[in-house]
Amino acid sequence: MGGYVITGGRSLSGEIAVSGAKNALLPILAASILNDKEIVIHDCPDISDAENMIEILRTLGCSVKREGNTLVIDASNANAYTMPPNISKKIRSSIFMLGSVLGRFKRARFTYPGGCEIGNRPIDLHLDGLKKLNVRIKEEYGYIDCWGDDMRGASIHLDYPSVGATENIMMAAVAARGDSVIQNAAREPEIEDLERFLNELGFSVSGAGTSTVCIKGGGVTRRAEHTVIPDRIVAGTLLCAAAATRGDVLVTNVDTGHISLTLSKLNEMGCDISARRDTVRLKAPERLRRIKLLETLPYPGFPTDMQAQMFALCSIADGTSVIVENVFDNRFKHAAELKRMGADITLKDRTAVISGVERLMGATMFAHDLRGGAALVIAGLCADGRSVVYGSEYVDRGYERFENMLGALGADIDKFEA
Ligand code: EPZ
Question: Which residues line ligand 1 (CB under 6 A)?
Fold first, then answer.
């Protein structure tokens, strides 16, 4: 297991550019199999979730070439609709391929992706939506066998605005006969980016970013070129690292419209924020103020993917903060690790009560998931002395050389391999 060695106490300063968004890139990679013409995608971060998705595309017969942060994809020879079990176990987002594989082959055979580090991850909303499109689904022996030879447009009302379910249904519905509408759709910016990509491919989708997404069935695909939107969670994470270390950092290549609630919470904690359309400068206070209440919600509510990072900030803030995790059922695993550093935390179900301490003490900690790992690194940056965070493999899933980003801003951090 690899990790990081961090010596705390340095204030971060300088300028850092944000890469393309992991959670936009993954469904866009999935959607690439819908097209038998060349696709060029720019601003693809070099992260392991993307590499695993590229491996999936290659396994299904696509050619994918990486030229720096640009991917050139040719799915004309895609020839398989069965997702190998070893891969779907390896990366949960393989389930994002279900809709597009059905759209391309009218057939799909996947294994259940299973839960992950942040809790149970059912896919009932995905499967119910596909059944509404007249997909026949047989679930047995851990396999999900889908037949979509007669997909028809439908009106689908999601019980919960699931990001993945919205995206899977969009990618299947473009291949259905007739038009579809998704009600109570997820409104995340990554859904809008997928809509833009599908329309660049030659399909006709509208309404992404609102709760009602309309998809016209059919469409002639064509060569496409796309630039992925900036990663709002990476941007928020870097701003939290600056906030934790009394820093003064300028983050560039960010869509500030996508992080407005994160910015307002950091401002509530006493940070001086100056935001333009695609840059944010954050100047941190000597000591952060507590957050009375932070609740994670589907977009445009506070993002669950920023919860752990804010949790680390609350651990050193002046006063008592309350965080409620409404989206996932087991996303506080970083709390036990922060307690090793002297954090004062009380957990009850989905609620955390955090009484900020003056200083955290450096400690040896273990990441249990992607965003929790980033949060532990942030805690190490502001702690007294030396910290070791094991589990850099989790962080590598969503951050492109995280240690280099932080090091470029003045952090004392080294990465070690397993
Ligand atoms: C996406 O996951 C993101 N992943 C997650 O980011 C993010 O935390 C999540 O959306 C919420 O914003 C990608 O985009 C690759 P959901 P997804 O379906 O689609 C329940 C990160 O750190 N649910 O919106 O899996 C589910 O259990 C990752 O970058 C059902 O009950 O999220 C969860 O409680 C972590 N049935 C809630 O909905 C379903 O069929 C939100 O899940 C589907 C979901």
Answer: 22-23, 26, 93, 120-126, 160, 162-165, 186, 304-305, 327-328, 370-371, 398
> Which amino acid, one-letter code, is at 274?
S
Single out the residue of 50, 70, 5, 3 nearest to residue 398, CA to CA: 50
d(CA 409, CA 282): 13
Which residue's CA lies nearest to atom 34 of ligand 1?
A: 328
Categorize the per-residue pLDDT at 285 as very low, low, confident or very high, splitting at 50, 70 and 90.
very high
Give the burial string for 290-308 (b: 16+ CB within 10 Å, else e): bbeebbbebbeebbbbbbb
pLDDT at 418: 87
Which positions ≥6 away from 164 have C-beta within 8 Å? 93, 95, 96, 123, 126
- Selection from 414, 413, 375, 379 nearest residue 395 by Cα: 375
Check residues 141 and 307 and name the one with the higher pLDDT. Answer: 307
Would you say how long the chain is, in residues?
Answer: 418
Smallest Cα–Cα separation from 230: which of 17, 9, 15? 17
- What are the pLDDT digits (tens) for 136-176? 999 988 889 999 999 999 999 999 999 999 999 999 999 99
Mutate to test the pocket of ligand 1, among 327, 332, 333, 400 (most ligand atoms within 8 A of CB): 327
**How distant is the alpha carbon of residue 43 from its chain centre?**
15
